Amino acid sequence: MPFALLKDRALISVSGPDAEHFLQNILTTDLDTLAAGEAKPGALLTPQGKILFDFLISRAGDIGFRLECRADIADDFLRRLMLYRLRAKAEIAKQNQVFVTVAWDGDSIASPSDSAGADSTALADSRFRNVAVGRVYGSAAEDGDPGAWQALRIANGIAESGSDYQLGDAFPHDVLLDETGGVGFRKGCYVGQEVVSRMQHRGTARRRVLIASADGSLPASGTELTVAGRPVGALGSVSGKTGLAIARIDRVKAALDAGEKIMAGDVAVTLAIPAWAKFAFPQDAVSAEEA
To answer: Backbone phi, then psi, for 122, in 5-degree steps?
Structure first.
């Protein structure tokens, strides 16, 4: 079973009798649908609906949760959670020296025997639809193949902050949290909920994660995508000839209808919707000049 040790991840624990109520009221994820043994995506938003922190959340015992996030934002995330806690009976702490390992392509999500100890916790990463991916929290002995993990994430259209977009610059719909179970549209209010719900009900999401491909190697992450010199998006994570992009789907559709090339620097690219996604290119795309 292939695996990869993710050295840039951290865990924050939230536990106590009010932990679930507290998190349910501020995060996009609907915790009523979070099953034991599952890691679901989610975000803490600004009041304007932009992603302030992204994470994977899982249950830890009867009254606890784990929030897995980027290590470089963990301290800021913890402070923001503490700010929202107020009088809630919930303990919030960053877990030190906990390794995060991902494993995939197996019949189960058990820990790879050469990378995780017996005390590890294995969880199903619910973002992936076409391959079983497990996240293991515990000890680690080997690095595995981080490059193969990035290629798998790209092939499945799974975007993450830092690699594919900047925090504070994207709505949940932009990075497909609405389609990967990261947004609960039937739960009560949470921070930024009004903006996200309005985008959902009006169908106004224009920026989306797409899979980019080219005949040769793609340029570096962050390269602007253009049509006839006009911007339509930017590349995120790249692995050889394929990568992720966040692009305006109305402008991409207009380019496709007009037979215009989409360029990443000086490389012509093809942009495709992830096979599992439910959104589609708009039927009546506007031109780049009109948008």
So the answer is: -105, 130
| Cα-Cα end-to-end distance for the chain | 46
33: amino acid identity, one letter: T
How many CB atoms lie under 10 A from the CB of residue 1?
18
pLDDT tens per residue, range 123-173: 999 999 989 999 999 877 789 999 999 999 999 999 999 999 999 999 999
pTM (predicted TM-score): 0.92
CA 159 from chain center: how many Å?
5
Q: Are 180 and 158 in contact (CB under 8 A)?
A: yes
Distance in angstroms (rounded) separating the CA atoms of residues 267 and 261: 10
Q: What percentage of the chain's residues is helix, strand, coil (to nearest 5)?
A: 20, 35, 45
Cα–Cα distance, 174 to 160 (Å, whole number): 11
